[in-house]
Amino acid sequence: MLKSLAALLMLLPAAALGAESAPVRSDRAVAVLMADQAAVSPGGEVSIGLRLRLAPGWHTYWRNAGDAGAPPEVTLTLPEGATVGPIAWPAPERIEYGPLVNFGYHDEVLLPMRVRLPASLPVGGSLPVEARATWLVCEQVCIPEEGAFRLDIPVAAEAQPDPATAPLFAAAAEAVPRPSPWQAQLALGSGGGSLVLEGPGLSRETVRSAVFLPAREGVLDNVAPQRMALAPGRLDLALTPVGGASVPDSLDGVLLVTDGGGRRVAYEVAAPVMPFVATAMPLWQAALFALLGGLILNLMPCVFPVLAMKAMALARMSGEARGKVRAHALSYVAGVLVAFAALGGLMLGLRAGGAAAGWGFQFTAPGFVAAMAWLMLGVGLNLAGVFEAGRTVGAGAGIAARGGHLGSFATGGLAVLVATPCTAPFMAAALGAALAMDAPSAMAVFLALGLGLAAPYGVLAVFPGLARRLPRPGPWMERLRQFLAFPMFAAAIWLVWVLAQQGGPDAVLAVLAGGLLIAFGAWALGQAQRAGGSRLALAAAALGVIGALALLPRIAATPAEAAAPGPGAEAWSAERVAALQAEGRMVFVNATAAWCITCQVNERVALRAEAVRAAFAARGIAYLKADWTAGDPAITALLRAHGRDGVPLYLVYPAGGGAPDVLPQLLTEGIVLRAVGG
């Protein structure tokens, strides 16, 4: 009889006048409804919260209780016109209990809600707030508890904070996870999962440990360890999905980070969920793949003109002393390695600073594309004989020995710059793995890629006698040199076309004007060289180059224009892929860029083939194009979710849902048809 009476009394509203209700007590917890203001004002806001003080050893739960338990629930009854927001959940603890992991709170917790009041509240009256709440408390056993509460808060012309409760609400607000300052990428699939965070402030000094607590139950295995990999500016956590569970389109949660001093900070993390592709690769394998990729890169169209120039330079050394051949070959190799080290260091530095930087990332900047177009034009004019590089103006001394080695070094650097729009087999996997490693390991992979690119000429450093088998110098070399100017001019034209995709007519006008100034400067320099060092010609050459460089800020500031995806294609988005799969359609995604030569070749050879188009139409396959020409962050996330750090990337999503198949980077008509079942 007494127990029934006690239970009945607990369900009656525990009333109080002011900022704190009468408590609901048990041997396990004391529950109170409270407000942060002693008096409220019409049309203002007030925080109302349920405070639970728990007996030693007992705990209650977060909004996702974890493997067992249930979160507290609070229902407020307010005057007409008042509205209430959701609970602002403080960051929870990770509570291990036998084979289970739960998320919740020990000792005490305040669960605040923000209430907006109507302007019609009469001054001098009171604000009645009634609440019914349920909560689960656990130690060795779990016991559900409940209570009814009431507050009557005075209404005044101006709100007045309550000196006893306001500090408790301030502390609760401090415990709410802060917005994450980092870019987040989430990937889940049958093979595993990962959470990747990138941005400044991620290092071994600032992160000692980290764990991700999902806000949605039944998605992640909470018991499975979350292995952490940390590099400057990047944090990787290995996640384990629940077997057989459906993968959500997006997921949010709390990242608990413990810094080097042992202080815990909670961050709110939310991101779309991409399909998971396992990309873990040991350093030796990544370096081997990079070496092979760099070697194959010599066969890609990007570097043909530069390699032909180097071959012509080596042909001049036919019959020269072995030491001279070796020195020039080593200078070229050094140029390649230094350029790759600089490019890798720049990529790692930008990513540590939170920028989205991948292979070929510099071509997403219109200013860089314009500068490269002018460089190709300048090299072409040099090859055509308009001016001589390395020649001492007025002295007619030709190219000095030191200048020759500097030229070999510069040629190696130029080969790296012009190679970045191309991607060779093995490269994507190697670079994707490298940028998930620590900085020294990543740099080792970049240098292995450079060794592969430099290998054909590095052989001459080891076996300089091979240079004697090259054709003897003669008049043919001058004709070849002039002929090689035209591939350079073609490269400049292609880069202007790329700039047209990025910045439109204004950018094209500026780069063409800059090209005219560069050509004028080259002509004036040639005149100065032939006339014995005319100061007027030299000044004109300098003005031409300075005038072109002055146009770069204008080109760099040109607003990006969204390129049309082309006939038969739609613009890519993760939401569109999901919608098309839900409609029962297969989806082909082409992640590409206007500056990516490999991408353009694949489109012409495979994706625009009549048989491929017919197969797409017959089977109702949706063709989505993810254009990375200007460096879209969403497409960057798509690339990284599939272990890639640059374009191209080709994905075939099955109808009805599911993870995609990843196609090779070099396509043929047959590869595409087999992938789509055509």
TrEMBL record:
<feature type="domain" description="Cytochrome C biogenesis protein transmembrane">
    <location>
        <begin position="285"/>
        <end position="496"/>
    </location>
</feature>
<feature type="signal peptide">
    <location>
        <begin position="1"/>
        <end position="18"/>
    </location>
</feature>
<dbReference type="GO" id="GO:0015035">
    <property type="term" value="F:protein-disulfide reductase activity"/>
</dbReference>
<dbReference type="GO" id="GO:0017004">
    <property type="term" value="P:cytochrome complex assembly"/>
</dbReference>
<dbReference type="InterPro" id="IPR003834">
    <property type="entry name" value="Cyt_c_assmbl_TM_dom"/>
</dbReference>
<dbReference type="Pfam" id="PF11412">
    <property type="entry name" value="DsbD_N"/>
</dbReference>
<dbReference type="GO" id="GO:0045454">
    <property type="term" value="P:cell redox homeostasis"/>
</dbReference>
<dbReference type="Pfam" id="PF02683">
    <property type="entry name" value="DsbD_TM"/>
</dbReference>
<keyword id="KW-0201">Cytochrome c-type biogenesis</keyword>
<feature type="transmembrane region" description="Helical">
    <location>
        <begin position="442"/>
        <end position="463"/>
    </location>
</feature>
<feature type="transmembrane region" description="Helical">
    <location>
        <begin position="408"/>
        <end position="436"/>
    </location>
</feature>
<keyword id="KW-0732">Signal</keyword>
<feature type="transmembrane region" description="Helical">
    <location>
        <begin position="368"/>
        <end position="387"/>
    </location>
</feature>
<keyword id="KW-0812">Transmembrane</keyword>
<feature type="transmembrane region" description="Helical">
    <location>
        <begin position="537"/>
        <end position="556"/>
    </location>
</feature>
<feature type="transmembrane region" description="Helical">
    <location>
        <begin position="483"/>
        <end position="501"/>
    </location>
</feature>
<feature type="transmembrane region" description="Helical">
    <location>
        <begin position="329"/>
        <end position="348"/>
    </location>
</feature>
<dbReference type="InterPro" id="IPR035671">
    <property type="entry name" value="DsbD_gamma"/>
</dbReference>
<dbReference type="GO" id="GO:0016020">
    <property type="term" value="C:membrane"/>
</dbReference>
<dbReference type="InterPro" id="IPR036249">
    <property type="entry name" value="Thioredoxin-like_sf"/>
</dbReference>
<keyword id="KW-1133">Transmembrane helix</keyword>
<feature type="transmembrane region" description="Helical">
    <location>
        <begin position="507"/>
        <end position="525"/>
    </location>
</feature>
<protein>
    <submittedName>
        <fullName>Cytochrome C biogenesis protein</fullName>
    </submittedName>
</protein>
<dbReference type="InterPro" id="IPR028250">
    <property type="entry name" value="DsbDN"/>
</dbReference>
<keyword id="KW-0472">Membrane</keyword>
<feature type="domain" description="Thiol:disulfide interchange protein DsbD N-terminal">
    <location>
        <begin position="31"/>
        <end position="149"/>
    </location>
</feature>
<dbReference type="Pfam" id="PF13899">
    <property type="entry name" value="Thioredoxin_7"/>
</dbReference>
<feature type="transmembrane region" description="Helical">
    <location>
        <begin position="283"/>
        <end position="308"/>
    </location>
</feature>
